[in-house]
Description:
Layout: H1 6-51, H2 56-112, H3 117-132, H4 138-149
Amino acid sequence: MPTARQDPLSDVLETYYNKVGRRADVSFFAAIIAAILGYVIIAAGIAVGVYRSDDMALAVVMTAAGAFSQVLSFFFFRNRAEERRMMLRVLADLRDDAEKSVRAARSLALIEQVQQPLLRDNLTAAVALELSGASADLKDIHDSMNLFSDGSAPDSPR
Length: 158
C-alpha cells in the first residue's frame, strides 16, 4: 500500500511518462507523414521524368524534395527512439531512487529501536555516510564518536 510520501512520486512518474509518450507519439506520426509524403513526391518526380521527359529539371527537383522528406522522416524516427531510451533510463533512475529512499527510511526506523545511544548514533552516522556515497566503516565511526564523547577532541573545552 503506497504511503502519502510515495503518491507524489507516482504522480510525477505518471506525468513524466505521459509527456514523453505524447512527444514520442508526435515524433512517430511526423515521421510517418514525412515518409509517406517523401514517397509520394519521389513517385511524382519519377512520373514527371518518365511522362514529361522535356521537363527533367522539375523531375529532379521533385525527386530531391522527396529524398529530403525521407531524410527528415529518418530524423523523426531516430528522435522517437532516443526519447524512448531516455525515458526508460530516467524511469530506472527514479525507481532506484525510490527504492533507496524506502531502504533508508526502513534503516532509520530500525535504528530508532536501538536502546544504546552511542550505538544508535554510530548507526545513524553510518547510514548518513552510506546515503551520501562515502565509505561507512563502523569501527572508524565508533572511534570518532568515542573521541568526541570523551571530551578529548582538540577543540573541546577542558
